[in-house]
Design the sequence.
């Protein structure tokens, strides 16, 4: 285990930022134009081309993007929207913005993605949309989700906060459903500090989101201070202040250029973890389905608690003491006081998600990890399992 003379500290995440990012951001600073402008437009163009979508609209966060996507499809008070319980609160929170109801759905035990059969059981006359979340980066069963959506006349808005780049049946996430939303939050696979992107092939949605992200004023509102723009603008709707900035775009373009290489590094770390843990009786490693690829945003290791004398929380504490910071994705939404108070959810409502939550932890997985760090995580996890095995 840890040599006490050396303070080992492997953070859960470190953004992969290098000289390219520094140069790219410096250029924007020197230009004198910091907020949304030509760099944002260029980043949107590059992102749309990378994904293979017709339109990409940069926004201030994935949460903002999800909000705008639901606004574009016309979610209104009293509607219901299906959301997996195993997700970050943002996915369901945006539904509440409209006075609509997030209806929580259990997850598939293997992938921790939304269980389509449970979603189907929860469709009512008020259900308008479904928000599949590609947990950890592995795509949901989008064919089955689209089939349900077609049958029950639902919109599909993908929460792809973890899924850049991921593929389903040979198609990149971001090209499949009506609307897809990515996150560029600090820990994500492409990071701009904060930020997000909506992709769609639907021109009307794209125009609506472009307008609503910047106060509901005419589409090129950001040009109103530039020589090619005009001082005149018209407020068409009460919109939001959800725009991106050129500083973020500069980071985004530098990151996009190495997106594939970064994914490859995460994939090789995941492979090493799986090789090290798969034959150990204390662990269940993530299973990747053959018809899809994952961004490997998360590496979720599940403990076989029946083989261990400690629970997940104690295991996480021991790892932290040994200098390995891990996280837990996610506390199911129905266990949070807000969703219980507002919608009457309670412990025991969504059993698969709950059972898996108590067993899972997310290991560090990011391009800047050194060989030694990966090896240290592996040996620490294995030694702890041996120490606490029954
Ligand atoms: C599944 C999921 N959806 C949405 C979000 C929200 O992303 P953002 O912080 O960009 O708003 C997150 C962020 O962690 C997430 O994990």
Sequence:
């Amino acid at each position: 285990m840890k040599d006490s003379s050396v303070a080992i500290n492997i953070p859960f995440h470190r953004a992969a930022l290098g000289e390219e990012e520094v140069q790219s951001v410096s250029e924007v600073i020197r230009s004198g134009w910091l907020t949304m402008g030509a760099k944002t437009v260029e980043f949107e163009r590059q992102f749309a081309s990378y994904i293979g979508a017709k339109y990409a609209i940069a926004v201030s966060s994935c949460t903002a993007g999800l909000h705008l996507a639901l606004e574009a499809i016309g979610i209104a008070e009293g509607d219901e929207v299906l959301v997996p319980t195993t997700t970050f609160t943002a996915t369901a929170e945006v539904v509440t913005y409209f006075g609509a109801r997030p209806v929580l759905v259990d997850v598939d035990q293997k992938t921790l993605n939304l269980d389509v059969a449970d979603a189907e059981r929860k469709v009512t006359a008020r259900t308008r949309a479904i928000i599949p979340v590609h947990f950890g980066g592995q795509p949901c069963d989008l064919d089955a989700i689209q089939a349900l959506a077609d049958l029950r006349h639902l919109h599909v808005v993908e929460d792809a906060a973890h899924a850049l780049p991921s593929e389903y049946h040979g198609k990149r996430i971001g090209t499949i459903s009506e609307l897809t939303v990515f996150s560029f939050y600090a820990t994500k696979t492409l990071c701009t500090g904060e930020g997000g992107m909506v992709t769609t092939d639907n021109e009307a949605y794209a125009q609506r989101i472009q307008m609503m992200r910047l106060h509901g004023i005419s589409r090129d509102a950001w040009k109103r201070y530039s020589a090619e723009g005009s001082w005149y603008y018209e407020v068409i709707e009460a919109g939001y202040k959800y725009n991106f900035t050129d500083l973020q775009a500069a980071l985004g373009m530098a990151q996009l250029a190495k997106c594939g290489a970064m994914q490859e590094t995460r994939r090789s770390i995941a492979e090493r973890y799986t090789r090290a843990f798969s034959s150990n009786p204390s662990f269940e490693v993530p299973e990747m389905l053959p018809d899809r690829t994952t961004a490997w945003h998360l590496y979720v290791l599940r403990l076989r608690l029946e083989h261990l004398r400690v629970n997940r929380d104690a295991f996480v504490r021991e790892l932290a003491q040994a200098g390995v910071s891990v996280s837990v994705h996610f506390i199911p939404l129905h266990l949070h006081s807000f969703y219980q108070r507002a919608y009457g959810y309670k412990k025991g409502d969504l059993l698969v998600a709950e059972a898996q939550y108590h067993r899972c932890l997310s290991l560090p997985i990011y391009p800047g990890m050194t060989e030694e760090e990966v090896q240290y995580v592996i040996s620490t996890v294995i030694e702890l399992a041996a120490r606490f095995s029954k």
Notes: The mean pLDDT is 96.
